[in-house]
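PT: before anyone asks, these are the final sequences, not the draft ones from last week. 1041 residues across everything. Please model them as a single complex and drop the result in this thread when it's through.
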Amino acid sequence: MQISRDILTRSYQAMRTIREFEERLHVEFATGEIPGFVHLYCGEEASGVGVCAHLGKTDTIASTHRGHGHCIAKGVAVDGMMAEIYGRRTGVCRGKGGSMHIADLSLGMLGANGIVGGGPPLICGAALSHKLLKDNGVAVAFYGDGASNEGSTLESLNLATVWHLPAVFVVEDNGYGEATGSSYACAGTQKDRAAGFGMPYFECDGTDFFAVYEAAEEAISHARSGKGPAMLHVHLARWYGHFEGDAMSYRVNGEVTKERSERDCLVKFRQRAADVSLLEASVLDEIDAAVKNEIDAAVVAAKKAPLPEAEDLTRDVYVSY
Amino acid sequence: MSKKSFRQAINEALRQEMRRDPRVIIMGEDVAGGRGGTSGVQDAWGGVLGVTKGLLTEFGEDRVLDTPISEASYIGAAAGAAATGLRPVAELMFVDFVGCCLDQIMNQAAKFRYMFGGKARTPLVIRAMYGAGFNAAAQHSQALYPLFTHIPGLKVVVPSSPYEAKGLLIQAIRDDDPVIFLENKVMYDEEEDVPDDPYTIPFGEANLTREGNDVTIVAFGRMVGFANQAADRLEKEGISCTVIDPRTTSPLDSGTILDCVADTGRLVIVDESSPRCNLATDVAALVAEEAFDALKAPIRRVVPPHTPVPFATILENLYLPSVEKIEAAVRSVAAYRVKEEV
Amino acid sequence: MSETITPITMPKFGLAMTEGKLASWSTPVGATVKAGDEIADIETSKITNGYESPAAGVLRRQVAPEGEMLPVGALIGILADADVPDSDIDAFISRFNESFISDDSGSAGNDEPTRKVTEVENLKISVQESGSQHDGIPLLLIHGFGGDLTNWMMTQPALTETRRVIAFDLPGHGESSKDVGDGSPVSFATTVAALAEVLDLQRVHVAGHSLGGAIALELAKTHPDLVASLTLIAPAGLGQDISMTFINGFIEADRRKTLEPVLQQLVHDKSLITRQMIESIIRYKRLDGVIPALKTIAETNFHDGRQAFPLRSVLETYSGPVQVLWGEQDEILSVAGSEDLPDAVTVIRYPDTGHMPQLEKSPDVNKAIKNFLDSGNS
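LR: through. Structure below.
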């Protein structure tokens, strides 16, 4: 398949931005300066970016508590995200949402979500908006293998089919729901679940940007063309614990090291780019350097940014009082 | 202006708002009814008690959406649609079913604006029936408005008459925040004059349905009518009552309640929801905290016992507050005199 | 024997009244009264009004206690000569009550008003007609700013006895459409003329209150052939002053507590403003489009706190009869507006009366209109 140079450049940049953002958070979290929980998306970058490469501003996504990658892939500004994670007034949610609730509705980003299975019903609604407002938009729910067992998710697969919605259900299957393996927690297969609702099913290796890009194109164009919802099952691996500070004693030693060395989506992307002469290494190096600077600047700025004021505590509970 | 039932008033509010704004849609279980049936009859029910009857015919199936019996998905969908440009009115049928979709209301719709730093608008209305008096027993009779009142980010409306219902529902639909609109199922056939044209009644503005000097009665929803009856009977005994219908439990017009208690010094609260952490306790706490010096008698609450709603008529009647129970409570606070200190 | 006993019954104020509350007795038992003396205050859902004795005599009994709600026609008191024995009165009361059947529909007969919505130049206009069985020139009633056709509740039934009477809600008011155009008297007068055409009225007596007075003047200017006579009650257009406290307060006040003092400016006897009257105005103001309509009217007519449309000159050119009725304590439009009018204009000023003499002094106003219309104009 043909992918334009522009899309490739932007996708690589997004994946690299996610990686730098998350690796930096891993380091910064350990210093104790970041409040609350942080769930990192390292290793899963190609999934969010490969899917969002097919989406525009009028399309909508809903994310999970592991949502930084989806935000960046959908175009949310990293300085605002970093400030948010540091609990600053300049954060995208003015320091009132934090890592698990980063959202930017103006970009069609319906929010990271602290509730497992929170996103799929919302995406049915967003898809309904696209359908009734006739903006040709598609709504995409990212959710994990853990959320795939939530009633709200299964109900949403049904509702989206019954209402014939332009929705895509992207199962990011990283093998673990918190500390429990999906081999234990998920009965049957995602494929059979899609079939159970009469929904087309696509799957791909989530560490291969090109595979995700291709599968997502099929799933999204199916939904966008008015044929109803589709499911995209993305196979992934999680490089860090469920949250920062998780010792991951439930994983065998070497599991993550192997993933990092053999299935790094950025390494695979560079390899493929070199193999077929898509993008020059120097271009990618420039992106890497620029991204590093951007993340450095975001961290510096976030640390210096003002904290919320006492008056912010009671603001914005309602639009009108 | 013509006489309209509570049911017609709500239907008319929905119809007029759907005509005014194409973004207003309704969804719920059997809000039309009949899809997939063998007779081919559409709009077979128009809601389980006929409240949304006729809307499918006028607005079509894109805007009157029957849902599977699947509350988590469609209440969540209503929240998602509200956040992305539509103005959905979702019907939860019986409010007791909130157990199947509380996450979508409590953790999603209610929280968007605050946790997204004031950048979200969620113009969502969830209509649901509440209340005992229908022999519908424990899972179809609860008065759960305290549950929603407890959740910041939600507005909660408990209309007390057809006139109130129409104006408050139109206000709810035009409001940019998520609103829980609770209809007492026993009141659907109650009638009164309701203007034909659209109108709005603002939230957080209590209505004084009676004004008197001796005792303040605060009552919610269907209990307002009970309180009015009690007040009219007590008037003949020489006890004059103010009856406050707060209209919305969130926001709550605490100013009007405190003003009236300052005038009368005696307070009875009538609330048909379960007695622990309900609106009666909330109002009692407010008055105890803010108007302690004005009180001339202990606050009395007329509330059900702390039990599920029973089935048998005799038990259900015992369960609910009644005009007689309100009268007795008012008499007792009216007669109360502070003991002289020894 | 019973000729000397006069029953006093619950009156019917306004066309819609079916019951009333005896708010208070103003005459003690045993007092001698003349016909026309006020003997009680009757409270209806709309208004509290003085009830005048229908005959002369001694008030022998107050059958209805204060605070009692009774249907129209029910016995509330007994008037009789001092020498009628108590036993006769007791017998009369029990006979009356045995035979009394509350029957609202029967008592109203042909005078029962019809209310309908008429299409006038793409506007819905709510019209209430009564007395259509009478020949002669009908009377058209035009209410004022923020009012509606129920402002004539004491006027329309009384004048319907001999005449077809048409009251209606102006655009922006009552149950009519809320589009008021530019809100000027000219624009309203155009609608009124169109309404007359729709109702097939070639010639009408016009009574206008307040802003409705200015509209009536404008109508007389532009459609002199339509207007048989003018009755102007506390009209706009003759003076310059206007109480902006009232106009702005009426627009802005949205709660009973804040609206009550505003409405009290309308009357001299402040107790006339009932809870229900306040409630019905709050309900009106909640209707879609009302606040913008009122703001437009206020902005157009009362810009800079003064009346924008002087219409005194109409009285120089209009050839029909004109009478002006005004309360001396009018707080909205000063009674000074009734001074220095052309000699041909009949002017009646009512003492202890505010801006709404047709409510506050309804028997006098009804008499004035009736006499005026009957004195050769009809």
